[in-house]
Write a structure and sequence with these properties.
Helices cover 40% and strands 19% of the residues. The chain is of the alpha/beta class and 390 residues long. It holds the Pfam family TIR_2.
């Protein structure tokens, strides 16, 4: 395999380096990508193995004693436009050299290993950088905890949807709710005793199945975990205990203890990659099946994109896009175009348009008609008609 993604490991020689690399291997497995997809380059091999024309991301592990290594390497990488993420252990100001003082860093801890691994994958466009979570709950039973999780997730750089906080006045409530669910990575479902007695909660549960969105299901004490059809849901149930709640109170005014909130954050981070990979695989499979039915020969590449070489000499790249295509999706497409080595190629961002608001679909159609000719979107309902073209 030709290495395309270079992960450069700089700084102190600490055991946390290997811990993080092991977690990255796990996340690549969750995404159904081989671990060889990322080439790990130690500082000692930078001059001989680093290629400036391929995507790179660097991690700098700080030193609690101020014994800073690889300063020349940092300077060269920054000049080359490579992003360097400082990782500190006690205090950023003492653990990290001045040359990285204007970079946002992250403190290493067991709770942050998943997050750091996902930051690496986001940097390489292997995992989308938007981190969207939808909280599904029954207002009369779990409002206080829903708000608590909203605040905790938001403070950890998630874009969180909570109906009472996330819909602007004057917007069509239910239409916007389905639209936002379509674009989320994970649903945190607060499964209280009366959750499925609510019509709209039941609808949200069904909608998650239709969209194949992963669910972190928090099941209240003395309440049974609901059976979920595994063919339509990816669910990760957690049976709650009274000691997960402050003073054991789990009514509508109850709140989780802080250590359990941190556990929920870790679970959401972990589920996110697995669910995005599953939805991406389903979209690829459906598109490929329709293509084969219409005698179109598309090939699935290791990068989990599809390519087609048409008889007329045209090259097409199909990029499965989870959620709602954005301008950043087009930027990602440009990167993949360069990695595939094509000069002349057209790109289609394929996506599932179920429950996306009509005004946004019209906006995407308008962009197709008025902007870049080589990058366009292709919605699921148009797969058949597009692939029927001669």
């Amino acid at each position: 395999m030709n290495y395309k993604y270079q992960l450069i490991m700089l700084g102190s020689d600490v055991k946390e380096k290997q811990e993080l690399l092991s977690q990255i291997d796990i996340e690549l497995k969750n995404l159904n990508l081989p671990k060889e997809f990322i080439k790990v380059i130690p500082a000692s091999s930078l001059e001989t193995e680093y290629k400036g024309n391929q995507p790179a991301f660097a991690l700098y592990f700080g030193d609690v004693n101020g014994d800073f290594k690889d300063l020349d390497a940092i300077q060269n990488l920054l000049k080359d436009g490579t992003m360097v993420l400082p990782i500190f252990f006690n205090d950023f100001r003492t653990d990290i050299p001045i040359i990285l003082s204007n970079q946002n860093g992250i403190q290493y801890s067991n709770n942050e290993v998943n997050r750091i691994a996902n930051i690496v994958l986001e940097a390489f466009e292997l995992l989308r950088s938007t981190r969207k979570v939808f909280i599904s709950y029954r207002r009369t039973e779990s409002t206080s905890i829903a708000i608590q999780l909203y605040e905790a997730l938001e403070s950890n750089n998630f874009d969180v949807f909570l109906d009472t906080h996330s819909i602007q006045k004057g917007e069509p409530f239910q239409e916007e709710l389905w639209h936002r669910m379509t674009d989320c990575d994970v649903i945190v479902l607060l499964n209280t005793p009366g959750f499925l007695e609510s019509h709209w909660c039941k609808e949200e549960f069904a909608e998650a199945g239709a969209k194949q969105i992963g669910i972190v299901q928090l099941v209240w004490p003395n309440h049974q975990i609901k059976d979920i059809d595994s063919s339509s849901h990816i669910s990760y149930p957690i049976q709650l205990k009274t000691d997960n709640f402050i003073d054991g109170v789990y009514d509508n005014k109850g709140r989780f203890i802080q250590t359990f909130v941190e556990n929920v954050l870790q679970e959401v981070e972990s589920v996110r990659a697995r669910n995005l990979a599953a939805r991406q695989d389903n979209l690829i499979t459906e598109f490929r099946n329709i293509a084969e039915k219409n005698n179109r020969m598309v090939t699935v590449q290791p990068e989990k994109i599809l390519t087609e070489n048409r008889p007329n000499g045209e090259h097409i790249i199909y990029i499965p896009t989870i959620g709602i295509p954005q301008s950043t999706s087009c930027q990602s497409a440009e990167i993949k175009k360069e990695l595939m080595g094509y000069d002349e190629v057209s790109i289609r961002l394929i996506y599932d348009d179920l429950r996306i608001r009509d005004r946004w679909l019209k906006h995407l159609d308008w962009l197709n008609d008025n902007f870049k000719k080589d990058i366009k979107t292709l919605k699921k309902q148009d797969f058949e008609s597009w692939l029927q073209k001669a």
